[in-house]
Amino acid sequence: MNNWFKLILLVIFACILQNCRFFPKSKSGQLGYNIVQENIINTTLPEHHIKLNYHIDDDNKFLTWLNQYPLSINILNIEHSDSIISIAVDNISHISYFIKGKDSVVILKTWQGSNFLIILDMLGDTIAHHEILIENNQGKSFSTSEPFSLHNNILYAFVGQYVRNPNSSEHIKNFYSAPHQLRVPLSDDYQLRGKVEGGTFPQMYQEDNHFPNPYISQIIMGDTIYYSFGSCDDIQMEVKGSRGMNIPASSNYLKEFTPYPREKLRDYAFARKYNIQEGRYYRIYYDKHKNYFYRVVFHGAKYANDDGTLNDMYDKPWSIITLDGNLKRVKETLMDNVRYYPYIAGITKEGLIIRRLVNDPNLFQCDLLTINY
Fold first, then answer.
1. Can you give the pLDDT at residue 47?
2. Confidence band of 29 (pLDDT split at 50, 70, 90)
3. What are phi and psi of 33, to 5 degrees?
4. C-alpha dist (Å) from residue 142 to 148, 171, 207, 217, 282
5. How many CA atoms lie within 13 A of 195 on its CB side?
6. pTM, entire model
7. Which residues share a beta bridge with 159?
8. How far is CA 175 from CA 163, 201, 210, in A?
9. Quick one: 351 exposed, middle or buried, by C-beta within 10 A (0-12, 13-18, 19+)?
10. Chain centroid to CA 289: how far?
11. Distance from C-alpha of 334 to C-alpha of 31, rounded to nearest angstrom
12. For 328-346, how does the pLDDT look when each residue is reduced to its tens digit (9 = 90+)?
């Protein structure tokens, strides 16, 4: 037997041992998804960009990011990658933003105890500037780490509250039983008045500490809001401001949720290990073309490998749960955690746009996928 043939056999055997990790298969032995087009998006970002956001659908293909030097919001039209729009801002530490249509940028800003909504055109000129007064404020401000949105002339955003004393059962219960979603009707007035209502965490959060990663995601459809919480199998429905039914949407890969030990709250080494080992539900998305919901799931993983290397968040296996328009489970698809980042960058009528994991952090490459049903 020549050496080349032996090498081929060795590669095949190694792939079997790894269960073909590069191409996850379902129990039937077939791929759970089809790669329709590799590198459907392939562009290079500037160095030192932070807070990269995606605005990818049938009509828009924008990437946005923040620059520290100079302080700016930067917008790249993927279809015209030689042109970058840069909008100067006075602060990037306390803002959240998104592209509205193709002609404006909507910014939420919290600064020195005050909250603002700012709308700029693509040249950076101000279209609207509002101060937002929050009813029963008590120090509430926007959570700039969570996405926000506009629907039917109402601003929806999460407030950045926190558990003031996580060692106190009373404080934990008060935090998780309180609403977390801010709703602000828009008008031409300078001062807009908003109220925090909705987005209350499930009962299990009030009984145990699921800090530090609660993970809350939402889909707004008319008068109905669907919430996905990191440590809850169900999707919570809210209709016209009233809490509705809990919809079963559990993963085959999450069996239990381990509360975070209170005595480890300031143990950052333990927090890193905990985040790798514990599985959680992440974002929820809606596909208007297929009338499907997608729920992304982080699986738990080993913190330390046999060779002594340590895993990070992108080493964790992940999957996508598909639910139909009635929130009935269709299937769960195991994704390739070696090839792809664990989120959906965009949804088009042709399929899902998912970013590839590459060694160069400035290289933005995406594949177009369809899930097999």
1. 82
2. very low
3. -150, 160
4. 9, 20, 25, 15, 20
5. 4
6. 0.86
7. 142
8. 6, 9, 12
9. buried
10. 21
11. 9
12. 999 999 999 999 999 899 9
Q: Which of 27, 64, 20, 28 is nearest to 46 (CA)?
A: 64
**pLDDT score for 57:** 84
At residue 162 the predicted structure's pLDDT band, cuts being 50, 70 and 90, is: low
**By CB neighbour count within 10 A (0-12 exposed, 13-18 middle, 19+ buried), where does 40 fall?**
buried
CA dist., res. 158 & res. 145, Å (int): 9
Determine contact, residues 62/43, Cβ cutoff 8 Å.
no
The closest alpha carbon to 159, from 131, 184, 182, 136, belongs to 182
Tell me what percent of the residues of the chain surpass a pLDDT of 90.
Answer: 43
Cis peptide before 212 (omega within 30 of 0): yes
Measured distance CA(249)–CA(296) in Å, rounded? 11
Q: How far is CA 235 from CA 142, 281, 291, in A?
A: 23, 10, 17
CA–CA distance, 131 with 114 (Å, rounded to integer): 8
DSSP-derived pairing of the beta strands 126-134 and 191-196: parallel
116, two tokens: 């603002």
> Model confidence over 243-289: pLDDT tens digits?
888 999 999 999 988 888 878 877 889 989 999 999 999 999 999 99
**H or E stretch covering 270:** helix 268-277
Residue carrying structure tokens 């090498």: 7
The pLDDT-based confidence of 164 (bands split at 50, 70, 90) is low
